[in-house]
Amino acid sequence: MTKKEVHQIVKSLDSLCQDSCQKLWNHPEVGGEEKESADYFRKLLSEEGFVIVNEEQLKHAFYAEYGSGKPVIAILGEYDALPGLSQKVSDKKEAMKEGAAGHGCGHNLLGSASTVAAIAVKRFLENEGGEGTIRFYGCPEEELLSGKVKMAYYHMFDDCDMAISWHPMSTNMVYDSGYLASASAHFEFKGKSSHAAFAPEVGRSALDAVELMNVGVNYLREHVTSKARIHYTTDSGGFSPNIVPPWAGSWYFVRAPYISDVKEILERVKKVAEGASLMTETSMEMKIDYGCCELLENHAYADLAYENLKEAELPEFTEAEMEFASKLESTIASENVERARKLYDTEGLPLSTKLGARDLYQINPLTASSDSGDVSHMMPMCLISTSCWPAAVSPHTWQATASTGSSIGAKGALSAAQVMAGIAYDLYKKPEIREKIMREFCEKKEDYTPMYEA
């Protein structure tokens, strides 16, 4: 079977791709609550002949496997939505349901395209009759940056050889590197309650400790890498001002280019918290929720992904779709629109239809965080994107939600499915490419342990 025939299998699944994208978009579920979405994919892949493997500790995580022997290729899928981003397919901000969730990051497209790609690869393996295994990974809680970290903790990625990932974006491109490493940690201070007017000297304020910690971390910012980000929120337990609060907490996110940076900064944040505890005569407990890694560079794998972007059919959009995209862009500052169209070389159009330059990831770095980065530290992983919303639109916005529920997003998803199926085809058919990718991975990888406390 040729690669073009695999592409044709993907095209024959167009209606399934559209239906899947729409089903998830119409029933958005936030991280940790993706029951309907996960069950939908389980049923779909089971009926296609995949064996479903669940992890009892993670209700909405699974993988669906077909085939036998090596190599074992993973295609990553996600399906969680974002809180508060409910939106109609409209060029005006108009919620389907006020305050409800919406697919503002395109995970309805992501899970659907990855499923379609996995089915196409399964049919290819079925036709070839040789050795090789395909796995679709149903990954929850990506927006919480924790799902794949937990899946790694429970050994769900064991025995996989290589992974393929994609994400909806504003253009068609490949990423050699990307994602900021990140960690989430809670700091809990316990003091001694007292009447703030009658006997303040008896009390030991946990809230004072929180405030001193936050001041200390603000001074710390000058002395960490300039590319690091430290975010926090606080919780004083809702005590009234006339009570010395016996409990208070801070929740911190630390982001940096590399997980080694994150761990180092987090240790320094911990020392600041310990100092605040000492100054206020309170006790302090720190709990790391999770940490996720940056994308481990693999240029050989990115080269393969780029060749498959060249060979696949990139999204083509109708005049009506271009007009809708233009109306969405009209809600964004004109200077941002102009900058984005120039960056993605859209030839003055609101939607990108061309393949981005090979080095576009350097000009337009991916500065978000994702738990997908952890997978790239366990096995070689590539990352591609296709055009699923207007050039000037950012993810996590109502404009992105409107696009992911439209035919624009579905076209980008089908194109991504072709690219992913093509990458898998090459990995099965060309062992010399696998070896080159694996050599680079082995040269760069370090020991990996999931940064998670169950």
Protein described:
By secondary structure, this protein is α+β, with helices and mostly antiparallel strands. Helix content is 42%, strand content 20%. The chain is built from 15 helices and 14 strands. Helix 2 packs antiparallel against helix 4 and helix 2 crosses helix 14. The longest helix is centred in the last third of the chain and has 23 residues, at 407-429. 54% of the residues are buried.
* Number of E-type strands: 14
Widest sheet, order of strands: 1-2-4-3-5-13-6
Instruction: Report on the biggest sheet.
Output: 7 strands, mixed
Q: Which residues sit in consecutive blocks of at least 5 with pLDDT less than 50?
A: none
Q: Helical content, roughly?
A: 40-55%
Count of individual helical segments? 15
- Which structural class matches the secondary elements? alpha+beta
In terms of DSSP E residues, the strand content is 15-25%
Shape: globular
Mean pLDDT score, rounded? 97
User: N-to-C terminal Cα separation, in Å?
Assistant: 45 Å
Computed over alpha carbons, the radius of gyration is 24 Å
Helices and strands, in order, run as HHHEEEHEHEEEEHEEEHEHHHHHEHHHE
Summarize the structure.
This protein has 454 residues and is an alpha+beta fold.
